[in-house]
Amino acid sequence: MKNFKNIIVAICLLVTLVSKGQILPVHLTTEMAQNPVAVVQNQQRLSWQLVSKESDASQIGYQILVASSEEKLKIDQGDIWNSGRVNSNKNLQIVYGGSLLKAETKYFWKVKVWNQAGKISKWSSTASFRIAPLDETLNPTWIGAITKANSHLPEGRNFHTATFNRQKKDAIINASDSLSRRSIMLRKPFTVAKEIKEAVVYISGLGHYELTINGKKIGNSEFAPLWTDYDKTVNYNTYELNAKELKNGENVIGVLLGNGMYNTLAERYTKFFVSFGPPTLFLKMKVVYKDGTEDIIKSDESWKYSKSPITYNSIFGGEDYNANLEQKGWNETGFNDSSWKKVVVQEAPKGILRAQTAPPITIQKQYNVASAKELKPNFYVFNMGQNLSGFTTIKVKGKKGQTVRVWVGESLNDDGTVGQGRSGKPYYYDYTLKGGGIEEWQPKFSYYGFQYVQIENINYKKTKDQNLPTLVDLKSKFIYNSAGEAGTFESSNAIFNKTHELINNSIKSNFQSVFTDCPQREKLGWLEEIHLNGPGLMFNYNLESYIPAMMQNISDSQRENGLIPSIVPEYVVFGGDFTDSPEWGVSGVILPWIYYQYYGDASLIEKYYPVMKKYVDYLGTKATNHIVSHGLGDWYDYGTHAAGYSKNSPIALSATSHYFYGANLVAKAAKLLNKTDDIATYETLTSDIKNAFNKEFFNVETKQYGTNSQFSNAVPVYMDIVEPQYKAAVMQNLLSDIKAKGDRLTTGDVGNRYLFQALAQNGENETMYKMNNHYDAPGYGFQIKFGLTTLTEQWDPRKGNSWNHFMLGQIEEWFYQSLAGIVADPEKPGFKHFYIQPEIVGDMTFVKATYQSIYGVITSAWEKKDGKLILKIEIPVNTSATVKLPVDKNSEIKVNGKLTKNLNFGSGKYTIEYKI
Q1: With contact defined as beta carbons under 8 Å apart, do 263 and 181 qualify?
Q2: Which of 348, 376, 481, 607 could staple 511 via S-S, CB 3.0–4.6 A?
Q3: Which keywords has UniProt assigned to this entry (predicted)?
Q4: Is the pTM of this model over 0.70?
């Protein structure tokens, strides 16, 4: 929310500076990111938003200047590119057209535009971008404490059997040297002897690292770099240093390494075992001086290392820290490192080194103790008030050698202690005190999902027992991706408001390097959640730079035969339907289309068209007469049965419908990209699957599909598989089943979205309202009544394992698209044109939503007041919208106080009202 609010405040301030009749370009981005420091060569596309005090404002032309320095740009000298005036209304994804840009070089740019009346704007503020290094110039040398050959870690992964096996477990536990899994500190002194123009660091520390220069942390990332399949892609991060971070004379680079997903451990809890090698570091620092010379500091044999005070670190098991092992000033100048050992040059990871362009994970929020309970003397359980993904920060004082053990969990046992039975145990943090005052500590390389904290054998705040350490303060830190929030939603309905909060707390908890299923037990990127919650994710978060990284991971994980596994990155191979389920794998086909719809950018469709096509072809090899029969189906569908595989609906119906969905999108992609040879092939395939589906699953006499379940009938309606002449009858059967179930759903993880949207898109929003406006299970209200702060894995939290899953959060799409009525126009993707068509349902009296589109803020806010419905909307500059109201054609409609029949609008703010 902070990023979203900052953008809104900044744009509002800029609007106040715009003269009447003027227009101003703001929020400049390169490759969909503000001032990026690692733009890949030949992919520079420039964009900006527009603000104006006038209504119906638009752009008819622009001029871009790109310069090699800010000084040149200030005097309007575009020595790299001067586009001249370009007559175009396009303000997004303008392809750079200047001279060849140099790698590892920073450029500055600005833009001015002409509005619809031909008036020219002021120049925008200056933006910048830095070109990433060429692969061959990085020439990485990887260093650490031990080579992979000497570490005795298991080799790779077996894609035919589960990674979790006894041999590998023993191999990790019995590794001959703890350096194979131990956190280490690395240091490198270097000298600066001239005045610096700029200094840039390129770094990848695997699994995760913390970089310091002269003792100060560089950047604000946690768990960097983002997770990948390290056999295919290895991310590196780029940092621009400011003058204060380097000093004349000696400087010191310090790097702390941890295991992460690169090197999981067997001790304590773990979901699986996988190792790509022992902790390892690549670093390159380029220092450019004002006299034109430069120095390169790289990871090589000249570095030294020592074991860090982090004696244990596991992404799944926790972290231990012994403060008595600290070496004060180890990452600063003047430190005596004579006892440190020389690093060894290690085997490089197999993956391609790529610039990380997705946003980092950061600490976003912190919570104080909401309540504390002493279960027995010196045994405390703390409620932090919010279930989240993250870790604790403790402040303690005590004697040297005393240890504080911190247990965390998202639920409590019957006896009031913290429970980990359903979320993976044992998971804890051990901190060993050095004594001599208040000590503050938090983990660096492990996180967990928790709301409650248990600490035994301590004093709390006051020292009552001199033989025990005293906990002075406790906080929980909420970590998630720093991409920023794009939307807001609120209404008169308390259940919907709280549901929105629960869902988004769960999304944030799982918005990590990848979208995970849960932040404790698995931390795995199960793919179905992404496309089934796709519209809700897009409305709520800025995913412009995040989704391309997801698609790279999907591409990396695709097998030679075309299979896209159900989890990406595929650190563990579960096998069978848990590896190969069409409802999961089809994300690789759907995701580029979602990106195109919301951002108007077809680049992912173009880049990953071979991935999309190859996956659909793979499903074809698994089909018999176009029917696909494997997979998990409507996972966790609701009923009296145990949750798991689809029980209410045929698995083959689910699998085949997603085969159809994928083939249809590949056919559309072929048409969009003018792949003439493929258009007819995949259009024919789509038709053949549709015919086979209807023949296999549709009962012409009863007008029902499959088992007559809600999923069976909703999916063909939503996907437009049902023949037009039968659609009304199938919808009626769907409604009859919902009513027979007491206006309750029976769908699951996969089916919820199709059920919700089949109703929403076919005029049954009152049914949606009834189905979700209650406090019973299945429903969001039951979880609210249960007192939860995040969405859970099952409708009844008492039955499920994780209390922090967002897979059931598909109602977010309904909140934004139906209740608020913000609907994209598929013919003009990216919200260049869109619809405002709110649904007025139940006893609701108001709804307000905002969405930060790539063109600017869209607002839709309606309220029932004094016998009227008042709708306030905001349309970004250079876009248009059509308003559709639930009124008859003879209703009197006022816009900004004047009667009108015209509900097509250009940019601006409008108040629309009519009697109800």
Answers
A1: yes
A2: 481
A3: Hydrolase
A4: yes
